[in-house]
Specification:
164 residues; alpha+beta; Gyrase A, domain 2; 2 domains; 4-stranded antiparallel beta sheet
Length: 164
């Protein structure tokens, strides 16, 4: 009798569990071929975007930082800047040059001390690397003696080093 009661109780438990299992929704179907194709395209697009963003130069930040360190007694006559990652720089990267050329400024100030002050301030701009004085000459503009200078630097790439 006791054994029969245990078996009946176990059978009821089994029946309850079978009903609960039958009430479960069916498992979702796996991704379709179209969904798998879209996932592959998304991965390729994310990879392309990541590559593009890693070589992006934030010019607004570079020029803002530059404008913040430019002394009041220095004025520019010319500024040229080019991205460290471009077809032009990749084509010219075969010859190794130690003279920076990505960020070049020409300007005037009243003394060589003003040029030295600008050079020291440009050294602290994180986006500029390899800052070098190319030339500095004393001349006259009208009756005012001035110092004309050319300073060049490289643009740091997003990966942390100077561009190629």
């Amino acid at each position: 009798m006791m054994g029969s009661g245990k078996i009946a109780s176990a059978q009821r438990n089994l029946d309850d569990l079978n009903r609960q299992f039958a009430a479960l929704p069916p498992p979702p179907a796996g991704p379709s071929a179209l969904q798998q194709q879209l996932a592959g395209e998304q991965s390729a697009r994310v990879g392309a975007l990541t590559t593009a963003m890693s070589s992006r130069v934030s010019w607004d930040r570079v020029f803002r930082e530059f404008s913040l360190v430019l002394p009041g007694d220095v004025w520019l006559t010319n500024l040229s800047a080019k991205s460290p990652i471009s077809p032009a720089t990749n084509a010219s990267s075969t010859g190794v040059s130690t003279i920076p050329s990505m960020f070049t400024i020409q300007g005037r100030t009243y003394s060589h001390d003003g040029v030295a002050r600008l050079l020291s301030r440009l050294q602290v701009v994180p986006d500029l690397t390899n800052v070098q004085l190319i030339s500095s000459t004393r001349s006259k503009v009208g009756n005012q003696p001035v110092v004309e200078f050319t300073i060049a630097a490289d643009i740091a790439s997003a990966t942390g080093g100077a561009g190629s």
